[in-house]
Hints:
Elements: H1 3-19, H2 24-34, H3 39-60, H4 62-71, H5 92-97, E1 111-115, E2 123-127, H6 129-145, E3 154-158, H7 166-177, E4 180-184, E5 187-188, H8 190-203, E6 207-210, H9 212-224, E7 236-239, H10 246-256, E8 260-266, E9 270-275, E10 281-283, E11 288-293, E12 306-312, E13 323-332, E14 344-349, E15 355-357, E16 363-365, H11 367-374, E17 379-388, E18 391-398, H12 406-418, E19 423-429, E20 443-445
Parallel strand pairs: 3-4, 3-6, 6-7, 7-8, 17-20, 18-19
Antiparallel strand pairs: 1-2, 5-16, 8-9, 9-10, 11-12, 12-13, 13-14, 15-16, 17-18
The protein binds zinc ion (ZN).
Amino acid sequence: MNCYTNWVTHVVFPVHEWLKKHTTVAVRKDMEKTQWLAASDLKKRQLENLKSFLKEVEQRVPYYRNLFKTLNFDPNNLNSLEDLSHLPLTDKSIIRQHSDELKAFDAIGLSRFNTGGSSGEPLVFYIGKNRVSHDVAAKWRATRWWGVDIGDPEIVVWGSPIELGKQDRIKLIRDKLLRTHLLPAFEMSEAKLDEFVQHIQALKPKMLFGYPSALAHIARHAQKHNKKLNDLGIKVAFVTSERLYDHQREMIETTFGCPVANGYGGRDAGFIAHQCPAGGMHITAEDIIVEIIDKQGQVLPVGEEGEIVITHLATADFPFIRYRTGDIAKLSNDLCVCGRGLPLLKDIQGRTTDFVVAKDGTVLHGLALIYVLRDLPGIGGFKIIQTSLDETRIQIARDQGYDPACEEAIQQTFKKRLGSDVAIHIDYVDHIEKEKSGKFRYVVSHVELKE
Ligand SMILES: [Zn+2]
């Protein structure tokens, strides 16, 4: 660890977290001990934590106080983790309908978030300080598995809104101090890709972080132009938010000369699982209970494939209890050779997001379009289909509160991104159909990327 990183890890970041009333440092230190516990001890700990979490939720969250009463559910009677299945599943539509009653009555300093989610179903939700501390700590622990620490230079390839608010500007100062450099992943014109490559060469980051599709796209560009990036000393590329394909892993690993570590989670569901250097996809079991369910909502035994459902134990301010992610995976009883007792998640089939191509040839990450829709009120679900360079269709399943006047704004923003003479059609549908594979894809492009 060099001097600057040492200073950031031990002074700057702890002070930053203390000022924000986060307990991240203590949580991370504790997690670095508990990761080595035997699986059975971790389970015991989960049960204790689950019990006190549900008791707290019963006290503080009106929605669950009423629900527990109706179901005659008493957290004190919880005997095993399996008893969690006595509570109903939650999904985005339930959270949308009850978002006020889901806030703890005494919660302070909640932050509002929104996400497109894996099914193109927008969701607005709230995150308290405890939750932030736990999610940041879990990510911090995972970066340390790979010999990278907070304060080491990092390149983040991520979608970001074009206009910056006050919060974003504060974040920029923090990012600068922590040596995090953001490359906006929305627009990937040839000129932008050249810039990205130069930026990475100049910064010599210890770590890359981003969507696998976006990192692979930059890698492909570098290879095409014979730009050497495998001698910069990059230790690891963290990828998340999308399904990671083998060809992407290979492209990223050879180009940047570092291993790829896959992460699974989301703003809504939390930091669910992350790969260790031995290859195991370890669940953040101290905070997150993962269940796998079948199509009827019944819990499946370990080893069987089904939908991932999570309960996040640090979310008493705005609970996520038995929350359906829409993604598919299976649990495993295997032990990872790294020796950590944290259980493993296998064969995760997350969402995929296509790139779209603007009329002038600029390649855009699908999120550039998703961001337009997910902020609008009254949209229950959506899907964007780019049929050709000249036409894009948007399917929208309306909820109450949808304002037809939004059409004009959608048209304008889509044209701004894709080209002023591109035809944008809005089709209203009852619900968004899944793909044949059974998975949702919320951005589908039939335009081929020129390699
Ligand atoms: Zn491991």
